[in-house]
Amino acid sequence: MKAHQEPVRDQTPAPARRSTRNRKAAEPVAGGPVGPEQMAVLQRAVGNGAAAELVAQGRHEHHARGGHPWNADTASPPVQRLFKSSKGQKSDSEPAPQSGSQALTEPAPSVAVHPEDDPQRGHNMAFADPLAKGADHFLETVKSARKAGGHEEQEVRAGYEQSFKRFLMNSEGKPLENAIALRNAFISKKSLSMRSGTGDLKNELRGEVVRLRGELDKRKAADASQKMVPGQREQRVLHALRSGGASALAPEDLPVYNALKDRAVDWAKLHDIQAMSLILVEKRGAAVVERERAAAVGRFDRLSWFAPYKNAGLTVEAMLADTHRHLLSASVLMSNMGFGNPAEATSTISRLTGGPDVTFKNYWETRSSGGQATSALRGSREEHLGYKDALNRTQGRFQNPAPDDNHDRFSPPDPSLLPKYAALMSRNRPAGLSAYGEAAVHWKPGLRDRVTLTPIDSWQNGVGGARGVTGSRNLYPLLAHGPEQVVRLAVAEATSFRFDPEMKSQVDSGSVNSLQEYFEAQIHGPLNWADVERIVLNPSPWVKAQKAHLELFAQQQGLSIRVETR
Question: 53, 39 in Cβ contact below 8 A?
Fold first, then answer.
């Protein structure tokens, strides 16, 4: 999503009517087969990984998290309990406290799989193992091709590798397990002759076994992941944040509680769905922090403009830590908006200043955007931010990596629950991203406590976009995967530009303001004028009128907002 704020509209789309379910029909028979609806309910109740294990063991009549008997009322999806109003009402029933004896002993599944750990699993693919006729048969084929001369052997090996890659993407796991057994059988047997190439083939097959096992492990991790869908763990953390007591939390849930408990967030007023997103993202960021720190170290070490820092005796690790601290303390949250002409009643600036209680709205409320106004892409990405329940997908594949407006549809019951967007910017870029609007709204620092971040525009695929989301205190993903010039500016600022005179000249000349790249921020919860620190107005036909209009509004409402022009 682009780093801008959506304009205000008078009309908000009517909430979609939610379909009702026959709860009795959704209740599985103890130990019997589980259909898609029942599995979805069970996954919501106990988590994806635990649900799969319970079904496999025929024990799905009980919850994995505490042994409570199955009940459709208590196992219904969180949205049915959490979806109250955006004014801070709590869920109908708080999660049951967890004593030490009830605490989970098995490790919690990941809330999201790192993009680099995605399995290669395809869909509706069924390629045969190229070694199905046996390793001896393949060895003889290679020997025959070698005797034929020319490129025969090279072509045989290339064809085999291509077939193996296709087979590795087989949608079923059993053929891959059989392939491992077939290769291990050949590797373990003793050769009865000194056949040429047997030793080399064994080494190649050992490598294939590693690849096969790696794929199966990735599939297992992906299947067990929550995929950024909140469950009972997140409910317990939220209850602890609201009650101020963590005694009921399992030990593995304490780190996320401790990371969030001192934030300047009114957890009682923040809607459950928004709070769950913050909890999920905090977990995701904590899970990858060391991995992304290492990725950032490797990136810095390779960048040519970082050489002067190393030549001065500064270690990559030290500079990375200094830059991280700088981003935490000195960067600014801002959103660019097209304010328009204050003389026009339908302009954004006129609507926003219609009264003290006017809120800044998101795309789903206005159905307009300074960037790309596509619901399919936005919704599919926001599913990765933990907003599955708020989005209410009505058509298409969950978290679709290639969404389009013909196949992916959403009908948010309460559009105001979905996030707003901003950019985490350098103070040396006060104009923000003028391509998205002439007014750069600088938000107050306290808002950082209910913000999540992605290294680049969250619309992007891979680790730079929504799947690379991190909490507001774990910024190493930004340095590892963010836009190079934005990262370079942050590093230069952290050392007062001593080692990067070129970047200093760009700041002094103002040319840095032409940079349109940024770290994206997602703001969770309501936004109003009390959250605004200052507004920087870029040149436009209405800049003087905008400044006068905003200053009068601030004076009338008793707001301490600075308005500046460039």
Answer: no
